[in-house]
Amino acid sequence: MYLTPFPLFPSQTKRKKPFLHNKDWQVRNLARKKKVIVDVDTGIDDALSILYLLKQDVELLGITAVFGNVSAERAAENTLKILGLAGAPQDIPVFQGAEQPLFRPWQGPSARFHGKNGLGNVELPESARSVQPGHAADFIVQKAEEYPEELTLLFLGPLTNLALALAKDPRLPEKVKEVVIMGGAIRVPGNATPVSEANIAGDPEAAHMVFSAGFPLTMVGLDVTMKAIFTERHLKLLEEKYRKDAGGQKIVRVVKELLEFRFGAYAGYWEERGCPLHDPLAVAVALDPSLAEKVPMQVQIETKGTLSLGATVADLRIGRAVEPNVLVCVKADYERFFNRFIDALAK
Fold first, then answer.
1. Which stretches make up the Inosine/uridine-preferring nucleoside hydrolase domain (predicted)?
2. Which of 41, 45, 46, 279 is catalytic?
3. Is 39 a catalytic residue?
4. Per-residue pLDDT tens over the stretch 308-342
């Protein structure tokens, strides 16, 4: 396992041009097929994200697992089961990563929103696939070295695996194309504490390292994901559209069971039964940035507060000259996202 110590947080690392304004870099990379690694703590919305991602025209280099909704071991197991359900190519590797935060004990799984097994208590067949030897952080470092400035990293859980990779290679921010995270809350309440979103609160020190390192970072947080409410109306559309062969029937049945569990977990939150698609929206924005409106902000992570631990603190003061370190999604085209999500899962 990966055991690099953490005596210091890495210093700010910069590209030759600030990533937010480097148009040459943006144009050059838009023309390439995305090479993607997705880091998951596979609960229900991670599972839906994997199913969605498998239907996209990307090169999925691998999937890494971290603690969060469930243990890292369970996240890896759930990921293998979802790959099996989808009939995904056998050559997509799955690596297990961090089993706990950098400096704090893990607070345990989120059974209320994901069930005891992370998949809404839906039992899927054991997978014939296996978790790969080695640590998720080493895999990230290896692929960033192999594909300089081509790699899209999607992080759908706590940022511990990325912090571990950064500790091993402090130049990692220069080597990746982009990092898109589902996490944070700027102008809306948190969902782990009154001000903190669960993935950031899950390992505040790891998030601090990542936000301070100079990554080309996009934050898809609760400001937009809590409005991405997938309802029974959307589920009915999915049931009408899905392909009617045996494989399609099996997938849509499992998706329906997963969503029904989430609908129950969020019962009473909205007038219409539904649930937010946190992770799938982040994946969709990573693959098509036009789905969301973004604002450059300077965002820091609170690592000391009693009431505010894990808060994503944006400096929004008028007239304050601060250099942005993240693109924060503030609006999204939800119906376009839902249509794409439904069409992808119905294939």
1. 36-339
2. 41
3. no
4. 999 999 999 988 889 999 999 999 999 999 999 99
